[in-house]
């Protein structure tokens, strides 16, 4: 195998692996049964918004009803969602948006003065 074909093979393997891990391709197969009561989603990370978007679609296609919740993702990684709020914040050091999102995801949305000291 020459260098070019080795590089092509490695590139194809990498692309296949990353495509298989896309939330839009793998979330539906891992949905839990619909729980009684509300379904609340909380998440964080670079892929959180894409995962929330895929979850909304798969959840609706399964006829599971409404979702609610919030995910926090790094600036520049937001995608549109319908039911799950997506918040962009800094990483790795938290900024005001990240601190507010952490508080709200833990305690719920309340009126609070979010001035960082």
Compile the SSE list and pairings.
Elements: H1 3-20, H2 23-26, E1 40-44, H3 48-61, E2 68-74, E3 84-89, H4 96-107
Parallel strand pairs: 1-2, 2-3
Characteristics of this structure?
117 residues, alpha/beta, three-stranded parallel beta sheet, 4 helices, 3 strands, 15% strand, flat
Number of helices: 4
Which radius of gyration do the C-alpha atoms yield?
A: 18 Å
Q: Which band does the percent of strand residues land in?
A: 15-25%
Q: Mind describing the biggest β-sheet? A: 3 strands, parallel
Q: What is the N-to-C succession of helices and strands?
A: HHEHEEH
Overall residue-averaged pLDDT value: 88
The quaternary organization reads as single chain
* Low-pLDDT residue spans: none
- Total strands: the figure is 3
Report helical residue fraction.
40-55%
Question: Distance between the terminal alpha carbons, to the nearest Å?
Answer: 60 Å
Shape: flat
> What's the arrangement of strands in the largest beta sheet?
1-2-3
Structural class: alpha/beta
Q: What this model shows, in words?
A:
- The chain has 117 residues and is α/β, with parallel strands linked by helices.
- It is built from four helices and three strands, in the order ααβαββα.
- The chain has helices spanning 3-20, 23-26, 48-61, 96-107, and strands at residues 40-44, 68-74, 84-89.
- A three-stranded parallel beta sheet has the order 1-2-3, sandwiched between helices.
- It is flat and about 60 Å long.
- The model has no long low-confidence stretch (mean pLDDT 88).
């Amino acid at each position: 195998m020459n260098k070019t074909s080795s590089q092509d093979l490695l590139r194809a393997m990498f692309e296949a692996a990353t495509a298989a891990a896309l939330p839009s391709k793998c979330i539906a197969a891992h949905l839990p049964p619909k729980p009684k009561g509300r379904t609340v989603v909380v998440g964080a990370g670079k892929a959180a918004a894409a995962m929330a978007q895929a979850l909304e679609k798969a959840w609706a296609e399964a006829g599971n009803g409404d979702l609610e919740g919030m995910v926090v993702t790094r600036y520049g990684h937001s995608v549109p969602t319908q039911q799950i709020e997506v918040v962009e914040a800094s990483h790795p050091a938290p900024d005001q948006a990240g601190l507010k999102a952490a508080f709200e995801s833990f305690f719920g949305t309340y009126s609070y003065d979010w001035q960082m000291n």
